[in-house]
Amino acid sequence: MDSGPSFPHLLAPLRIGPVEVRNRIVSSGHDTVMASDGLITDQLVAYHEARARGGAGLIVVQVAGVHGDPRDGGSVLQAFDDRCIPGYARLAAAVHAHRGAVFGQLFHGGRETGALDDGSQAAAVAPSSVPNERFLVMPRAMTRQLIAEVVQGYAAAASRLAAAGLDGVEVVASHGYLPAQFLNPHVNQRTDEYGGSLEARSRFLREVLVAVRAAVGPDGAVGVRVSVDEMAYEGLSQADSLESTRALAEDGLVDYVSVVAGSSATYVGSSHIVASMNHPAAYTAPLAALVKTLVSVPVIVAGRINQPHEAEAIIAGGQADACAMTRALICDPELPRKTQLGLVEEIRACIGCNQACIGHYLNGYPISCIQHPETGRELTYGELRPAASRRQVLVVGGGPGGLKVAAIAAARGHRVDLYDAGRRPGGQVLLAERLPGRTEFGGLVTNLLGEAERAGVVLHSNVLVSAELVRRLAPDVVVVATGAVPYRPELDLVDDPVVLDAWQVIAGEPVPSGPVVVADWRGDWIGLGVARRLASEGHRVTLAVNAPHAGFRLQQYLRDEMLADVLRLGVTVVPMTRPYGADADTVYLRHTLTGEPVILEGVAALVLAQGHRPVHELLDELTDYPGDVCAVGDCLSPRTAEEAVLEGLQVGSSI
Ligand code: SF4
């Protein structure tokens, strides 16, 4: 394929040490929870193969442990013995078959250890016995002997990856992991040759890179990943990070530098590891530009780079040489190919919701994407199978689930008519995108609608579909995707209090001036978002949540940022409470553990974010329909857009 004229910098080849990469689009190292027993699986091979097939220039495989002290859980790859080689070899062959280059990350988390497969906590080590904010494990200080063993572990792991046919390795010195712990004087309090001056604190990383360079030999690339700004209290300073990177590059120890921001050691810093839609696109590019002024090797940058034009501008502007578009590729593995073919409008842009990618990872499940649930399920849904025969499909409801089922069924060759009761499709997304900081969520509908239209789905708006209409249209298959409406729990209401549901507030219905209580059952973005909206409009807001903390159900990086936003606006969070009544100026809550009443007086309005009730009446009325009847999404049981789109894929693939 020829490079398209619009993206000459992004689509140009790049030489990284001895490796020629076909373009500047990189899938950077990211955990997938697709490893098993520390080894590469067919699922992981298929996942990366899909990105290589889609045209990614370089794929950097997720972290692999280099030493067994401490041990990690089985979903973390391990490269500290030869068992890893066959899996890496299969993965490398799969990526090379599509002309992609593939590197592997070498990792030691130091004091950042998680749970083992049996649920117990792994022991932790660090330069010194200094704990961090998130992992709550006190590490033991590493002996010189252990340091030497770990350095050798990096080298041995690098040779295994080279033996497996990978094109290069990347030492992960970012995000507060072990090399960064040595660099950081707040963590490294050693008085031997590994502590003290920056030169001494850099010694560990330097020894690692020297050993890795020797192990890989002249045919493999060696890179280092650094957080130029850990964005954290007691983080590694930007000055130290830049200077150590400069010195390592100047001494020829690395063929490239991969720039990121954030640190997993703190709540604030960790939000930058996978930055949500709260952050502007490409916001880390200025950090890469700082590195570019100091080193002569290529610089890769990651951080919410979702679209080819953003990446092109970064490279053309000299801020970096290549762009890690990792979530963009999770969301649309075909992004590079579409870019080359000039089909940029067809790219399914990542919206930074963090729900099914990093959200799955942090919950211990294989990563996927709410917009593209085929991700992580490539072995099942990697290829669209044409329908055996063309059928007439009627989809009722144009929310995310209805749009997805329509798009997939039509792409497989069916005739699909989608009816929606509203003026335009989108369902609850049309409300979600109106919450503060959630505008980008609307991209979900833009993308799905585009897919449905390109697949040939015929859209009918402003039609409320009845069972009678279905019978008159007589399709072969009916897919009910009628969604949900707000749920109002039974409440003891006296003296006509003002009680609104969250949808009404989001839609702009007036809320009386004065203090407001938002009663949040689901612990997601609705309660937090409505609280933020009302507080920013001048209300004194109490957010009463039916959980230990607000945003209980949200991916933690997103949750922490939304929580910080509402706390800055003065919102009071009352945990473990649910409403049981209200009168003209009082809201009555009950503590969910003690059962004691929690009475809030002087309240102007109660806003209910109490979840949703399924709209399943049409589904029930079609039980005797002679054709096939299926259902997807909230009409089955209200959940989130992720489940609706996944069920749309499943049903659309099975018709
Ligand atoms: Fe992007 Fe959300 Fe998909 Fe993750 S789940 S890749 S953040 S759209």
Describe, in plain words, how this protein is organized in 3D.
The chain has 655 residues and is of the alpha/beta class. The protein is built from 23 helices and 29 strands. It has an 8-stranded parallel β-barrel with strand order 3-4-6-9-10-11-12-13, surrounded by 7 helices. Helix 15 runs parallel beside helix 17 (443-454) and helix 15 packs parallel to helix 23. Residues 1-5 have low confidence and may be disordered. Bound molecules: iron/sulfur cluster. Residues 327, 330-331, 350-357, 369-371 line the site of iron/sulfur cluster (SF4).
From the structure above, extract its key features.
single chain; 655 residues; alpha/beta; TIM Barrel; Rossmann fold; FAD/NAD(P)-binding domain; 3 domains; 8-stranded parallel β-barrel; 5-stranded parallel beta sheet; 23 helices; 29 strands; globular; disordered N terminus; binds iron/sulfur cluster
Number of strand segments: 29
Which CATH class of the largest domain? Alpha Beta
Q: What is the CATH superfamily label of the largest domain?
A: Aldolase class I
Q: Which consecutive residue ranges, at least 5 long each, have pLDDT under 50?
A: 1-5
Q: Write out the strand line-up for the largest beta sheet, numbering strands in chain order.
A: 3-4-6-9-10-11-12-13
**β-sheet strand percentage:** 15-25%
The overall pLDDT average reads 96
Taking Cα atoms only, what radius of gyration do you get, to the nearest Å? 26 Å
Q: What's the CATH topology name of the largest domain?
A: TIM Barrel
Proportion in helices = 25-40%
